[in-house]
């Protein structure tokens, strides 16, 4: 478990010790961040300043995006992309936040990609209060997630344009993967939108108007991503149906071709079988040109059957 406390708004932002965090009462605010891993508990010096309902929300084993008001504070859970090369079961990792005037406590079980960008903005002096911090996380998560959602749509566009030439089996697996990722993304993107919309509607003293505007902006971005993911899911399902139809059509064409070949050779097999019987009385058995006459007759019969199929348009694709 890694714990970091940063003092913001009282001179240049700096890391502080647990003792300093407990004794500080302004004028800036403290951001206490815990990367808990699989250890679902808060450090004692953090839990001492957190209400029971908020503490339970911070260390819950399973979470979904939400925003609930508790007195003059807010429990804010969001989901966003993890840092690269982080092995996770869910497509997005959570950040659980308890925000109020003067302090923000946040917990993640896996490293969140947006955290580094938020800390960089904090070091530049762009984050001065809890509302700025929450809004910064919302903007960074939505900005990080947006290109990934757009990439799913771009990949699906490429697969649609190459539908006729692509390997059907590989394409089917690729489309299934895209559809699964879209479902996994949308599971959390839509609640992210609802949580930020609800946060923007609260009248906290520590949440300024520009923070509400940034939260609404991020919520609108999440709403657009949710719509895009829904479209990707529906397009993937439709494309999968088209692949199934194309595959069935290919099988029908091949089966028809095999049937035509078999039908052509059916009368020829009868003739050759009849003339190949090892009995006396076969006409022209001793004629030196009898074999070639049989070959000619077989060719004519085969061409006649093939012409009949062509005339009936059975061989047309």
Give a short summary of the structure.
This protein is an alpha+beta fold and 317 residues long. The protein is built from eight helices and seven strands.
Written description of the protein model:
This protein has 317 residues and is α+β, with helices and mostly antiparallel strands. It folds into two domains: 2-245, Beta Polymerase, domain 2 (2-Layer Sandwich), CATH 3.30.460; 248-311, Up-down Bundle (Methane Monooxygenase Hydroxylase, Chain G, domain 1). 57% of the residues lie in helices and 14% in strands. It has helices spanning 18-23, 44-47, 52-58, 113-123, 130-161, 168-200, 209-275, 290-311; strands at residues 2-8, 14-15, 29-35, 66-70, 73-80, 93-100, 103-108. It has a seven-stranded mixed sheet, with helices on both faces. A hairpin with a 2-residue loop joins strand 4 (66-70) and strand 5 (73-80). It is rod-shaped and about 120 Å long.
Keywords:
2 domains; Methane Monooxygenase Hydroxylase, Chain G, domain 1; Beta Polymerase, domain 2
Residue-averaged pLDDT, rounded? 81
Instruction: Please name the CATH topology of the largest domain.
Output: Beta Polymerase, domain 2
Give the low-confidence spans: none
How much β-strand is present in the residues?
5-15%
Largest β sheet strand count, sense and barrel closure: 7 strands, mixed
How do the helices and strands follow one another from N- to C-terminus?
EEHEHHEEEEHHHHH
Number of discrete domains: 2
Shape: rod-shaped
At CATH's second level, what is the architecture of the largest domain? 2-Layer Sandwich
Report strand order across the widest sheet.
Answer: 2-1-3-7-6-5-4
The CATH class of the largest domain is Alpha Beta
Instruction: Please tally the β strands and state the result.
Output: 7
